[in-house]
Amino acid sequence: MKKKRVVDIVEEIALPFLDKNNLELVDVEFVKEGQHRYLRVYLDKENGVSLDDCQLVSEYLNEKLDELDPIEENYFLEVSSPGIERQLKKEKDFEKYKGRLVEARLYHTLNGEKIIKGKLMGLKDNKVIINREEKGEVEIARDKVALVKLSINFD
């Protein structure tokens, strides 16, 4: 039998609890940084995530993960909001934030640009569509995009 990935196990544990508490699971990461491992859980909800929300989920996950003990290594658990410039990863993110200002960072230049900013028009046929007012609409294959995140315009 194939061993489950840590992020999949954490998602399985967290989702019913988050649903019950009207919270959305944005992402789970299990990464090594330096000598340490970090289990990061990112949450969201309609009017923003509070410190109390993060504490509630952190306590729940600590208890469940201690009980089940699915992670062999030592790690630090971090529960937080993805922030106002959150990264868009899932298809539903591209639908939810359609019409919002985004920044796409590309692996390689496209028409001399490696960073493309504009209004997110959505995701179609696995292409990110961004409308740049003065330069028009651009479609970028998703595998050519390193990341897409919400962007704040301070003009």
From TrEMBL:
One of its GO terms (cellular component) is cytosol. Coiled coil: none annotated. One of its GO terms (biological process) is translation. It is found in: Cytoplasm. Gene3D superfamilies: Ribosome maturation factor RimP, C-terminal domain (2.30.30.180), RimP-like superfamily, N-terminal (3.30.300.70). Residues 88-154 form the Ribosome maturation factor RimP C-terminal domain. Its main location: cytoplasm. Residues 16-85 form the Ribosome maturation factor RimP N-terminal domain. Required for maturation of 30S ribosomal subunits. This is Ribosome maturation factor RimP. The lineage of its organism: Bacteria, Bacillati, Bacillota, Clostridia, Peptostreptococcales.
